[in-house]
Amino acid sequence: MKTLYVVLVSALLLLGSFSMASAQTAGLRPDFLVVAATWGSKSSPIVASPGDSNLPLFVELVNEGGSAVNANATLKLWGPFYYSYYTDGKLVYSRDETVRLGTVESGGQALGAFFISIKADASDGVYVIPLTISSDGFTQDLNLSVPITGYASIKVVGVGYNPPSMFPGEQDVELEAYVVNDGTSLARNATVYLSLPSGFLPAWGNSTVHEIGVLPVGTEVPVQFYFNVGSVKSPSNYTARMIISWTGGSESVPITFMIYGKASFSVISTSGYNLTQGGSGQKLYVTLKNSGNYTANYVTFNLITPNEFFRRDH
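The structure corresponding to this sequence follows.
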């Protein structure tokens, strides 16, 4: 009987202690702490890049205060971040995104899953985004540190010409270059423009513009340009510029090529005997001048005559 009495007293004491602790917990305000904010998840993290859409951001919270009933978490988006959703068939853009946490007991954890889009012209860096926790009769303001580390970077990795040797007056010269995105995110709206030096012209319309569009990371693509060489000084080196642009970035790459010297002949004078019908052995003297800027070696000439003339070979 004595043993039973002791057990009952102990049980009452424990129940009283539990009731007092519950009452104290119920009287405490919730107090949330951000444990982590991760793009993707801890097990499968992803890189946030300019231009990404509906990127999952998981926010881990712990409640170190009293119980929070009907708790919600609201991100106050700013800068390059926004939230988009459809309502009544229309796409709506918002700076606030709210997720439901439910009831979070004292010492309990909560996970909020947000889906955020990033403007294409965003700069990389760490951004601080306000987070508001609200429940019945309670509001708490917190901050998240959210990184944007992805970036696009387009480089020229090779250049070739057709023909490989260019001369003054050359037409429809092809310049082919290879470009690659060696960044960590997609390059969007990528375009390459060849800016020609003085004395050079596009072969036609937009023959010095190449639109790529989207260029994935690590992808190498060829781009072609066509231009005409004017009556420029030669031999000489000339420098064009390959201007690469994409959403949020650009690159200007010098491209140097040689225009070789070229021999160019002109007729100075002609002389000869009076030509008679049926005559033979008539001689025609032609004086030529190399008016180009390059020495001509092993020169041969061929006289093209009308049908009424013929050449007698010796």
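The radius of gyration is 40 Å.
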